[in-house]
Amino acid sequence: MDTLGHCYVAELSGEFSSTDIYTQKFLTMLIPNIFHCHDWAYQLILNPSSEGMSALKADPLFRQIKTHLIADWIIHYGYDWSSLEKRKCGWAYSKMGLSARNYLGFYAELKSSNLLLDSAALPEGWNKKKLLDFHHSAVEYALDIIIADHFSSISHFKALQDFFSVEVPLDDEKQFHTLLATLTDMGFNSDRDFKIWRKSFQETLDAVRLADRAADIPIYGFAKKYGLNMTHDALTQARRFLYSIVDDIDPQEAFELCRSISQHIRRNL
Q: Which domain of life does the UniProt lineage start with (predicted)?
């Protein structure tokens, strides 16, 4: 799951105020994505035998980060994180075929219509890891669309846009450096650099600010991640591809998945 999914399962868990999730806690809910620090966080925060966990529990960001990690682990690797063994048995991997059947045609259309950035990596150049990343990520963006279309409150989307409104802008740079300073104090580790962190932070906000409706947020996120040029035609193709996945996922199945994740969050925070 991506932006909206993490917010929704946190909301369902009952452990956080909905008002906070879609305003002041929104970015902190997404820290592992922004700073690409999942592996570090799994070891320090999700690992039941971590020696550093007790010291971190007092940190105000601990609960938000752990909520994100529980959701991500379940989506990718299933419900057992006791040994932190990454077995690709989670829901996202089980649905990858929904992406695999159409992605080559999707990229062929993008390429022939000049809808890709020059820097975009094409499928013929992907290794196995990149291929898996694309398919399970596409499924997760599709899950966010289902959440947006069926379960997420319009008032939450409006609150999110109002809070991060470009008309009344918060100091993006200050927010970014505040998050970075807090993580640095926690001794975080990431396989990416400052430039990537800052780019991920800004793209998270841009997707919210540009969206006309909640379902646009995952569509914009997907298009940015995979090198589309963000024109109207490119976003139309991204929307069409993701909805080809959405159409084969029962919304009730998506809800039960989110409810199950939220229950595990509630039991393990």
A: Bacteria
